Amino acid sequence: MDEMDTVKRAPISIFNVESNTAELKTSMRDIASLAGVLNELGSQQIYESPLEILRFLNTIQLLYEESLGLAGVIEDTEMLYYRYRNTYIDDAPPTIKQLEHLIYILSRNSWLTKQTRQIKLLDRGKRMMDALIRLANDSLAYYLQDDIGRSLFQARRDAELSAAYDDNGISGGNKIASMIHNVEDAIQKLELRQLEFFADRNALPQLEIIHQLMQELEIKMQERLSQFRTVEESLVMSELVQRGTAVLSKGTALSLGMLTKYIRFVTMQDTPLSDSISPEKIRTFIVNMYNPPIDSNIPNAYDLFSFMEQAQYEDEELDGIWMPIKFAAPIGGQDIDDAIHYLETYEPKVNDPIETEAEIDFEETIVEGESVQQLFDDAAWQMTKAVINTDIIEHYLDVHGESELEEVMIESSSAEWGDAIRSLLAVSALTSKQKVNMKEVLDTKQFDKRWEWVEDDDRRFTLQRHKRTTRDNE
Amino acid sequence: MTTDDLHYNDINAQLATMSNLRAYLSAEEELAFMQLLFSSSASVLGSNYGLRRKDLEKLLNIKNDDKAFYSFIERVNAAVHRYFRVIYDEKRTRVIVMMRVSAKDAKSTLSKEALAILLYMFYQQEVLNHEYTLVQQILTDFGHELLNASAKLLKNIDQLKKIGAVEENEISKNEKAYSLTAIGVHIFSDSFLRRTAEFAQSTQLNKEEVLKFFKRYNLYIREDAL
Questions:
Q1: In chain A, which residues have their Cβ closer than 8 Å to the Cβ of B3?
Q2: Cβ–Cβ gap A302/B107 under 8 Å
Q3: Is A154 exposed, middle or buried (0-12, 13-18, 19+ CB in 10 A)?
Q4: Does the beta-carbon distance from A268 to B189 stay under 8 Å?
Q5: Under 8 Å between Cβ of B102 and B147
Q6: How far apart are CA A290 and CA A250, in angstroms?
C-alpha cells in the first residue's frame, strides 16, 4: 500500500504549487540569473562564433571541478587563466581581461564569490552549470544522429527523463506524450524514406541502427507505460498508453520489416546461381506481394523497383518497366489561331449583379405601372361617374340582363329626349370602359319615345353587362 | 500517371538514339515510325493505342507482306531497343510503341497493387497458358478478407485497363474475366521478372532460366541475334 501511495502522489511541479511561496520565487530567480548570464553571452558577436560559448563553459567547468574537489583551489583570475591554458587545447584561449569580465558577470549574478584568496562557485552556480552541461551534451547527442535517429533518440531520452524524474517525485513535464509524439514522427519519416533506403546499397548498417533504437525504445517505453497501467490514472493517461502501445508496435513492425527485406535481398547476393524455379513459390510470392504485412520480409512491387535501383545487375536500374508511350498530340496552326481568338474574345460567364438588379427593377416597374394604371383608370371612372350617371343603366342591365339599346335607354329613365342623351352618354362611357358589351342585331322592337335616331340603324344593338370574372368561373 | 515525368536527361538520350534510325530505315519507314510514335499517344482510350496494321502497311507501301512488316518492326527495335520497343498486338492487329521507364520512375506509373495483379495475370496466362483470369479467382487469392477488397481490386484493374494492359473478356454474363493484351505481356522488364523470381526462390537465378520460365526466351534470342 505504501508503494502505491508514493506513486500516486503528484510529482513536484512548478505548475501546481501556490505561486506565493518563497521557494517558487527563488527557483524562478535562478532562471532570471541564468538569463542574466546568457544575456551577456547572447550578443550577435558570440552567436556568430559559437565556440565562444564553449570557452565560457570550459571556464566554469574549471571552477566546477574545483568545487567538487577534483582540482586545486583557484586563487585569482591569473591562476584561472593558466589552468585554462593547461587543461584545454585551444588556439584562442580567453585573455585575462576577458576572464575578469566573466568573473564579474558571474559574481554579479551570484554564481560565485570572489574572495581574497579564492574564487568559489556557489550552489546556484553549480546547479546552473549542471543544467548548462546537460543542455549542451543533449544537443550534441541529438545532432550526432541522422533525422530518423533524432526522433528516436529524443523519444528514448524522453523515456529516460520520465524515469529519472517522475519516479523520484519530480515532474519531468509531459514526457510520455512527448515520447509518443517523437516515435510517431520517426515512423512517418521512416515510411517516407523506406524506398530510399532500399535503393541504397549501403543502407544496411543504418537500418540496423534504426531497428536497434526501435527495439531499445520498445523496452523502455513498455516499462514506462506499464508503470502507468498499474495506477488508476485519468482518462488522458490511459489514452496515451493506448496510443503509445499502438505506435510502438507499428514502429517495431515497420523497422523489422525493412530490415528483414533488406537482409533477404543482401543474403540473396551470396547464394549460388540456381537454375531451378519452383512455380509454386513464384505463385505464392506474387499473391503475397499484393498486400504484404508491414513486418514481413516480402517486398511489394515498389520495394522491388527500389532494390533494382541499387543496380547490382548490369542495366537493372534502367530496366524498370515498359509502358505504352504517350506524347502530346501535335497542335496545328489553325488550332493556335482558334485558341488566340477564343482567348481574345473570351467573356467570363458570370452573373452580372447590375444586370440582375435591372431585371428585377424592370419587373417591379411593370407591376407598379399596372397598379398605377389601375388607380388612374379607377379614378378616371369615378370622375366619369360623377359627371355621368351610369348607375341607372348598370342597375337596369343587372336586373334585366341582355337588352336592346333603345329599351335600356327608355326603360331605365324615360322617353324624353333629354334622358335619352344622358343615357346615351352613360352607355358610351360604359362601353368605353368595357363595363358593357354591345352586340349588333338585325331585328329590334319599337319603343314609344319623343325623339328619333338620325340614322335609324344606330339602334340595332343590344347591351349586356360585361361579366368576365363570372364567365371565367363558369 | 505514366511517363510524363521522366528526367530531362533520359529524354535527351532517347532523342539522340533517334538519329541512328537513319542507318536502319528508309525515309519512308522513318516517316512511318514517327507516325507510329504519334498515334501511340494520340488517344487515351486503352484499346486505341498505336496504329492498325493496315494503316501502317499503307504508310510503308506494303500489303499483306509478313516479311516486310516484321522486318520493319525488327529493324526499328534494333535501332531503339534500349529505349523503345515496337510490338505487334496480333489479337487487335495493332502496332504499338512502348517506352522503357527506369526503376526509379516506375514507381509513379502503376500502383503496387496493380502491378501485383498484372504479375499474377501474367503468370497465369503467359506461364500457365490460361486464356484469361477470373476476377473471382484474383479476389480469392488476393486477400478477400481485406476491407473493401473487391472495390480495391477493381480500382487497380481499372488502372491496367486504362493503359490497355488488360481487356475484359466476355465469357459469361455472371463472370468477369480479364486477359492480357500485347501491352500487358510486355510491361514487365526482364530485370523485374528476374528479381521477382529471385525473391520468390530466395536465391540468385540465372537470367536466361528466368526468361525461359516466363516464356520470354523467344524475345530474348531475337533481340540478341540482331
A1: 323, 325-326
A2: yes
A3: buried
A4: no
A5: no
A6: 20
- Band (pLDDT 50/70/90 cuts) for residue B38 is confident
pLDDT score of B1 more than 50: no
Please name the residues in contact with A430: beta carbons below 8 A apart, sequence gap of 6 or more: A390, A393, A394, A436
Query: How far is A297 from A308, CA to CA, in rounded Å?
Result: 16
What is the average per-residue pLDDT within A211-238? Answer: 76
Query: Does A282 contact B123 at a Cβ distance shorter than 8 Å?
Result: yes
Nearest one of B137, B127, B122, B129 to B180, comparing CA atoms: B122
Query: Residue B178 is inside which H or E element, if any?
Result: strand B176-180
Quick check: A353 contacting B, CB < 8 Å? no
Residue with cell 523485374: B192
Closest partner residue to A269 among B84, B204, B210, by Cβ? B204
Query: From CA A61, how far away is CA A55, in angstroms rounded?
Result: 10
The beta-carbon neighbor of A271 closest among B85, B203, B213 is: B203
The dihedral sign for the CA sequence A180, A182, A183, A188: positive
Fill in the DSSP letter of residue A438.
E
For residue A385, give every residue at least 6 positions away whose Cβ sits within 8 Å of its Cβ, in sequence order, or none. Answer: A391, A429
Closest-CA distance of chain A to residue B23, Å = 23
Interface of A with B in 183-242 (CB under 8 A): 195, 199
Q: Is B93 left (phi over 0), alpha (psi -120 to 50) or beta?
A: left
Higher-scoring residue by pLDDT: A427, B19: A427
CA distance B76 to chain A (A): 15
Rounded to 5°, angle at Cα B41 from B36 and B47? 95
Residue B126's contacts (CB-CB under 8 Å, 6 or more residues apart) are B180, B185, B214, B215
- Cα–Cα distance, B97 to A172 (Å, whole number): 65
Judged against a pLDDT cut of 50, whether residue B28 lies above it is answered with yes
User: Which one-letter amino acid corresponds to residue B115?
Assistant: L
What pLDDT, in 10s, does the model give residues A123-182? 888 988 888 888 999 899 888 888 788 888 888 888 888 888 877 777 766 788 888 888
- In chain B, positions 63-122, which contact chain A (CB-CB < 8 Å)? 82, 84-85, 96-107, 109-110, 112-113, 115-117, 119-120
Which residue, A171, A159, A168, A234, is CA-closest to A14?
A171
User: What whole-number distance in Å separates Cα of residue B90 and Cα of residue B181?
Assistant: 9
B171/chain A closest Cα distance in angstroms: 24
pLDDT of A383 strictly over 90: no
A288: Cα within 13 Å, side-chain hemisphere: 16
Residue partners of B194: CB distance under 8 A and separation at least 6: A313, B205, B207, B210, B211
* Confidence class for position B42, pLDDT limits 50, 70, 90: very low
Contact residues on chain B for A285, CB-CB shorter than 8 A: 196, 199-200
- Cβ distance of B188 and A321 shorter than 8 Å: yes
Crossing angle of helices A77-87 and A96-108, in 10° steps, is 110
CB atoms within 10 A of CB A200: 16
pLDDT at B188: 93
Mean pLDDT of all residues in B34-51: 65
**pLDDT-derived band at A471, boundaries 50, 70, 90:** very low
Complex ipTM more than 0.85, yes or no = no
Give the chain B residue whose CA is nearest to the CA of A308: B103
pLDDT tens digits, A51-107: 888 888 899 899 888 888 888 888 888 999 999 999 998 888 888 888 898 888 888
- What's the pTM value of the predicted model, to 2 decimals? 0.63
Give the mean pLDDT of chain A.
81
